[in-house]
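ok, trying the design again with the full structure, not the truncated one.
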C-alpha cells in the first residue's frame, strides 16, 4: 500500500545523525505534557487536553488537508479513522487527568505495559515472556507507591494504557488499509479527535479564550506534544534500523522521569526508580511480531506516551 510521505529531508536533516532526531522526539514527547502540567494552574486539565488536540488538528490539518483523502474513502475507511480519532480523544483526556495526579514518569511507564503485552500475545517467545516478567513487577512497584493516596490517578493511568492498546490495534488496521496512511492518517485522526473531544472537554477550555498567555501556551503544548515529535520521528526512522529504534524507544520512560525531575521537580523514590528501570528493561527485551513486508507502518499519532511503532512493526 502507498502512504503519504513526509517532506523530503532538507540538507540539515541529512547532515544531522538520526540519533539527534530521535533525541529531539524523545525530549518533546514528554516536554509537552510537562508544560501541560504547569498550565493546569491556569486552565482546567480537560481544557488543556482540548487545546492540545485542537491545535495539533489545526496544524496537521492545514499541512496535510486530510479531508481530500477522506472524500475518497469508503464507509469502512471513514469509520476506521473516526474510531481511531475517538480513541485518541478519550485517551488524551485520561492521560492528562492521570499526569495531574501522578508523576509523569509513572504514567509513562504504565503506558508501556500494553505494548509489551500485545507483543507477547502476537509473538509467544521466551524473550517476550522475559519482557513481561520484568515489566509487570515494575508496574506493580509504580502503582503500589501511589495506589493508597491516588487511586483515581492510578485508575486513569491504566485506563490510558488500555486505550493506548486499542489505539495500537486501530493504528495497525489503518496501516493495512490501502487508501490512507502515513501523515495523512495522522492528520485525519487528529481532526476526528478534535471533533470528539470538543463536547467532552471543550467547555473547560472556554476560560482560556480570555487569557492570551494560557491560549498560546495551550497551542505550544499541542505543537510540542504532537507535531514536532512526529516530524522528528519521520526523520529518525528513515535512517535507523528497526532493532536500533526499538531499543532506543525503551528509554522513553527514563526520558519522562528526567523531564519530570527537571521541569516539575518530581523526584522519584527508590521504589519508583526501580519500577521505571524494570519497565525500561522489559521494553528493551521485548520483540514485536513480524509484520508482512507489504504492510506499511502506521504513524505514531498518540503524541504523548509509549510509541505505537513498537507494536505495529516500526
Amino acid at each position: 500500500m502507498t502512504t503519504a510521505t513526509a517532506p523530503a529531508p532538507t540538507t540539515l536533516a541529512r547532515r544531522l545523525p538520526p540519533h539527534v532526531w530521535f533525541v529531539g522526539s524523545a525530549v518533546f514527547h514528554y516536554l509537552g505534557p510537562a508544560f501541560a502540567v504547569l498550565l493546569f494552574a491556569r486552565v482546567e486539565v480537560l481544557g488543556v487536553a482540548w487545546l492540545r488536540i485542537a491545535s495539533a488538528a489545526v496544524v496537521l490539518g492545514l499541512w496535510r488537508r486530510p479531508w481530500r483523502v477522506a472524500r475518497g474513502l469508503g464507509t469502512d475507511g471513514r469509520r476506521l479513522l473516526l474510531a481511531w480519532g475517538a480513541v485518541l480523544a478519550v485517551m488524551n483526556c485520561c492521560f492528562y487527568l492521570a499526569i495531574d495526579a501522578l508523576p509523569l514518569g509513572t504514567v509513562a511507564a504504565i503506558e508501556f505495559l500494553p505494548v509489551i503485552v500485545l507483543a507477547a500475545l502476537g509473538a509467544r517467545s521466551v524473550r517476550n515472556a522475559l519482557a513481561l516478567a520484568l515489566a509487570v513487577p515494575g508496574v506493580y512497584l509504580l502503582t503500589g507507591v501511589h495506589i493508597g493516596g491516588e487511586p483515581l490517578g492510578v485508575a486513569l493511568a491504566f485506563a490510558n494504557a488500555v486505550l493506548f492498546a486499542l489505539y495500537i490495534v486501530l493504528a495497525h488496521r489503518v496501516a493495512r488499509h490501502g487508501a490512507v496512511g502515513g501523515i495523512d492518517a495522522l492528520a485525519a485522526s487528529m481532526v476526528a479527535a478534535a471533533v470528539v473531544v470538543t463536547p467532552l472537554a471543550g467547555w473547560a477550555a472556554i476560560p482560556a479564550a480570555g487569557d492570551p498567555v494560557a491560549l498560546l501556551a495551550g497551542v505550544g503544548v499541542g505543537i510540542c506534544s504532537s507535531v514536532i515529535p512526529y516530524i522528528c520521528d519521520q526523520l529518525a526512522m528513515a535512517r535507523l534500523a528497526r532493532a536500533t529504534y526499538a531499543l532506543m524507544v525503551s528509554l522513553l520512560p527514563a526520558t519522562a522521569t528526567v523531564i519530570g525531575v527537571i521541569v516539575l521537580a518530581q523526584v522519584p523514590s527508590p521504589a519508583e526508580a526501580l519500577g521505571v528501570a524494570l519497565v525500561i528493561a522489559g521494553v528493551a527485551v521485548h520483540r514485536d511480531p513480524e509484520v508482512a513486508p507489504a504492510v506499511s507502518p502506521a504513524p505514531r499519532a498518540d503524541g504523548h506516551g509509549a510509541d505505537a511503532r513498537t507494536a505495529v512493526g516500526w
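Keeping the full-length input from now on. The first helix runs from residue 11 to 15.
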